[in-house]
Amino acid sequence: MGVVVVPLLPDLLEVNDESIFDSSFYKSGKGEYIESDKGEPKEADPNAADADNPVNPQTNKPYTNEEMERFSQLRERFPDNSLIPK
Question: What pLDDT was estimated at residue 55?
Answer without folding.
Answer: 93
